[in-house]
Design goal:
Helices cover 52% and strands 16% of the residues. The chain is of the alpha+beta class. It folds into two domains: 2-49, no CATH class; 56-96. The protein has a three-stranded antiparallel beta sheet, with no helix packed on it. It binds zinc ion. The site of zinc ion (ZN) has 8 residues, from helix 3.
Length: 97
């Protein structure tokens, strides 16, 4: 019975650390693996020693035909327009580091 309680607490600690890592935007599955294998203390050390990678989203305008990304918005892709194709640009968000 004590073992079940111990395992529940152990797993809870692992999951809490995983959740915190997910919110901190660091490698959360690695925290989970470390927590289970090296005990949640190891996972906690990993969690504390890692700083999140600064990722921010930036709007880009992508052409579906040539696959080119443009920073400025325009109605049609200027490169494809030169070739005689009017390709509307699609607004996408890309991860910037
Ligand atoms: Zn294009």
């Amino acid at each position: 019975m004590d073992l079940i309680i111990f395992l529940s607490v152990y797993l809870m600690a692992c999951l809490v650390l995983t959740f915190l890592s997910y919110r901190k935007k660091i490698n959360w599955w690695l925290t989970l693996i470390i927590s289970i294998l090296v005990t949640p203390l190891g996972g906690f050390i990993y969690y504390q020693s890692n700083n999140p990678i600064k990722v921010y989203k930036e709007a880009r305008y992508k052409c579906r035909r040539c696959g080119f990304y443009f920073t400025e918005e325009s109605t049609f892709c200027p490169y494809c327009e030169q070739d005689g194709h009017k390709i509307p640009l699609k607004k996408v968000y890309v991860d910037m580091t």
